[in-house]
Write a structure and sequence with these properties.
By secondary structure, the protein is α+β, with helices and mostly antiparallel strands. The protein is 54% helix and 14% strand. It folds into two domains: 1-35 and 150-175; 37-146, Glutaredoxin (3-Layer(aba) Sandwich), CATH 3.40.30.10.
Length: 175
C-alpha cells in the first residue's frame, strides 16, 4: 500500500512540474507577442515599461505622476503590465536580472537604462522625472530589448529535481 502512495505522489509531482513547464512556455509566447505597443499603423517598442497591481494605491499615485510627466512628451510610449496577468512576473524577473534589481514591491518602472522599484517617497518621483528627461534628450532604448527569453526553464528543472529528490529519499527510507 505504501509503495502505491509513493508512486501516486511521484506521478502527481511530475504532472505538476510538466504542467508548470507548459504554462511557462505558453506565457513566454504570450509576453513576446504583446511586448510592443500598437501605434497608428506600425509597432513601436515602448521606452517605459510599468508593472503594477490592481488596487495598489502607490501604483495609482505613480500613474498620475507618470501621466503628468508624459503630458509634455506624447511621443514616449508606455507598456503597462498588471503583475498578476499571465507572463508578467516572468517578464519582470527577466528585466530585474538585467537591471540588477530585486523587485520586492510594486510599482516597478523601467525607463531606458533605469529602474525604479516601489513608490514610497518623493525620491521615486524625482528619479522618474529625471529618467524621462534623459530619455527625451538622448536616444532611449526600450527596456523590453533586455528581456531576453530564457534558454532553458531552469525554475522547472529545479522543481523537478526537488520532487525527484523527495521521491528518492522516501524510497530509501521505505527500504
Amino acid at each position: 500500500m505504501n509503495r502505491r502512495v509513493l508512486l501516486l505522489t511521484l506521478v502527481i509531482g511530475l504532472a505538476i512540474a510538466v504542467g508548470g513547464y507548459a504554462a511557462q512556455v505558453q506565457t513566454t509566447s504570450h509576453v513576446a507577442a504583446t511586448a510592443h505597443v500598437q501605434t497608428e499603423s506600425h509597432i513601436t517598442a515602448p521606452q517605459i515599461v510599468v508593472f503594477y497591481k490592481t488596487g495598489c494605491s502607490h501604483c495609482t499615485h505613480m500613474e498620475e505622476v507618470l501621466t503628468a510627466l508624459l503630458y509634455k512628451h506624447p511621443n514616449i510610449k508606455v507598456a503597462q503590465y498588471e503583475i498578476d496577468s499571465p507572463g508578467a512576473r516572468g517578464l519582470l524577473n527577466r528585466l530585474a536580472v538585467h537591471y540588477k534589481i530585486l523587485p520586492t514591491q510594486v510599482p516597478v518602472v523601467f525607463v531606458g537604462d533605469k529602474a525604479i522599484v516601489g513608490w514610497t517617497s518623493r525620491t521615486q518621483e524625482s528619479a522618474l522625472g529625471t529618467a524621462i528627461r534623459d530619455c527625451v534628450t538622448q536616444k532611449c532604448p526600450s527596456p523590453l530589448d533586455y528581456a531576453s527569453e530564457p534558454t532553458l526553464p531552469w525554475n522547472d528543472i529545479m522543481w523537478l529535481g526537488v520532487i525527484l529528490g523527495v521521491f528518492l529519499v522516501l524510497l530509501f527510507i521505505q527500504r
